[in-house]
Amino acid sequence: MNTDHIENELYKVRSVRACIKSATDMMISNPLTILRRTWLPTLVLSIVTSLSILLSAFFESQQPTTAGASTVNAPLLILGVISLVAYIAIASWWGASVISLLTGRKVKDNIRRILYSLLAVIGLYIIVGVCVSVGYTLPMFGGKASLGHPTIISPLVAGIVVVLALIFTLPISYSSMKYLVEPQQKLTSIVGKPYMTGLHRWGFLFMAALLGGIIISILIVITGVPEIILETAKKANDIGMAMGDSNGLSASFTVLQFFVTILCYFIWYYIYCWMNFVYYYVYGSIEAKEMAKKDVITTTTGNSADNHDIEAIDKHLKLEAGKASDSKLDIEDI
After folding, report:
1. So what's the pLDDT on residue 59?
2. In the chain, fewer beta carbons within 10 Å around the N or the C end?
3. Burial of 55 by CB count in 10 Å (0-12 exposed, 13-18 middle, 19+ buried)?
4. pLDDT tens digits for range 174-217
5. CB 158, CB 139: distance < 8 Å
6. Other Cβ atoms closer than 10 A to 260
7. CA–CA separation, 129 and 165 (whole Å)
8. Cα separations in angstroms, 132 against 55, 80, 226, 241
């Protein structure tokens, strides 16, 4: 991939449709290069994700059904912590590989920025989750409602918090991409001036996220058919075993499901890679619009200054002409 050419073509005013088309053209034009430079982190990330999902389901199925709701499954908790740490580490490697395709910088130079931005996003999700939980439980205080039987106000307040969170977190898709692309940007810029620019361009970001999300959902459903079939068969078998039937799945079913899950996630992560390209061109389009806006302001200011200078010159010439006239009259009198 020619990163110089990509950068030269980046800062152009594009519509959402044009951003999606440019990202698609990049994927179609450079499939071997993208695969060669990202296949290993994508494969490792797919394996880690698949192991986390399947092992979590296994430990949950082994937990006694008579255990109380407050009982903590220690193996599942340990697995969750290990999976989260492994996922963050491998996802940083994967994200750095994807960004290096766009910027031309080495993967190791991008890992730290990817890691910081990923941790910031996870922290943001935690804050949003806490706000939703507080919004859900707060209306229950002082009433007869409980977590099992909440009032209508609880889900309503939680829904409002979710909508507000979606509105005010969307500009981060622009500010975080700016942080990853521009080395001079600091981590605080994600919620700084670039965030305000993204908030100003909220409609453009929303349309990109909406159309991109629709396309991603369709592609995930189509490519995830094998995983859906296997998961449906497993659920049906679990229901049958709960009703007293014998296990109808072979011993190789778990191995088959593991490899199919890896394959599906391997494909899905390249779909997410395409979405990163979309946001890259969205970032470039917003930057081009902001630069054009500054040029218009500069030109307008310059024209106003020129007009002001012309008016000042006219006044000066009139004043000089008046002085010259007065001087002529004085000479004639003498």
Report:
1. 66
2. C
3. middle
4. 999 999 999 899 988 898 999 999 999 999 999 999 999 999 99
5. no
6. 17
7. 10
8. 28, 22, 34, 37
